[in-house]
Amino acid sequence: MKHILLIKEIYLEAFKNIGHVLIKNYFKAFSWFCFASFIIVLYAFLFRVATGFAFD
């Protein structure tokens, strides 16, 4: 739980004084897109490992 709170604090601190609202919203959307992409890649890799895919 401590790590999740630390990540949340880093996320909030990163967008505190960034400037224009449009730039702030763009970076927030981009960070969520990157996080979602990472989760999808992690799921695909674990699915391949679980089904016995041969990584040759």
Strand content: under 5%
> What is the domain total for the residues?
1
DSSP summary, beta strand count? 0
The total count of helices amounts to 2
Regions with little confidence, pLDDT below 50 for 5+ residues: none
The major pleated sheet works out as: none
How many whole angstroms does the radius of gyration measure? 16 Å
Oligomer: single chain
C-alpha termini separation: 38 Å
**Which class do the helix and strand fractions yield?**
mainly alpha
Mean pLDDT over all positions:
88
Share of helical residues: over 70%
Overall geometry comes to elongated
Pattern of helices and strands: HH
What would your notes on this structure say?
- The chain is mainly alpha-helical and about 55 residues long.
- The protein has one domain.
- About 75% of the residues lie in helices and about 0% in strands.
- The chain contains two helices and no strands.
- The longest helix has 30 residues, at about 20-50.
- The radius of gyration is 16 Å and the shape is elongated.
- The model has no long low-confidence stretch (mean pLDDT about 90).
